[in-house]
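Contributing new records

If you add data, match the layout below exactly. Sequence lines come first and carry their own label; structure lines follow with theirs. Keep one chain per record. Anything else will be rejected by the validation script.
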Amino acid sequence: MSVKKLKPITPGQRFRVVNEFDVLTTDKPEKSLLAPKKRSGGRNNSGKMTMRYLGGGHKKRYRIIDFKRNKHGIPATVKTIEYDPNRTAFIALLAFADGEKRYIVAPSGLKVGQKVITGEKVAPDLGNAMPLADIPLGTVISCIELHPGQGAVLARSAGAFAQLMARDGKFATVKLPSGETRLILVTCAATIGAVSNSDHQLIVSGKAGRTRWLGRRPRTNPVRMNPVDHPMGGGEGRASGGHPRSRNGIPAKGYRTRSKTKPSNKYIVERRKTKR
């Protein structure tokens, strides 16, 4: 994976940094794994705008991803590494020995022709999915379940990875990408390796229109609104608007909104590091 900076032959390309996509092997998705993706434009069934700053964007089709990795004991061969417009990571097309095809979130370093498998007591090789009980301590993992059979919910974005730190009884201690250390049941599955496309964080779009292509409309600065529209609106001249807060008045930048009685608090060993 690599990025390149374009020559500034137009204003939109002056600062643009693009992904070279040198790890992708095809630009034709598997038709049997495509689904339509409807856009709402932020409107409800009455046509009323209920979500601001949504709309437009290039038409997409959803790629059906196998987050559960529940085809146990059947080896699969990696056929292609592909781009997915619905996520930051790349995806890999697997062809199983019984003829079925599935997409998975591609781990970094996965190659076409490589064999992957899901199950207990399998080798902890790149791309294999297995329970936390069978993964060696210290292994870099991604696409982690929070409940057995639920499907991957943690460490799924480009370049994300977690690390298996310890095991004690029915719980494993996992250090998550946010810096949080958490207890997860050892019966939950995870994929070996970090998620692909770690260079995604280096990409610079170069112009506002590229954000519109992604379906995001321009967002108005709250300080420039009127008092009726936002708590930080109004004032004379360049009034700062007071303390930063949301449209509902909830303070930002340091105000903790997590419930102190949330049931999952007991599974958090160490909270994520916050910027002060």
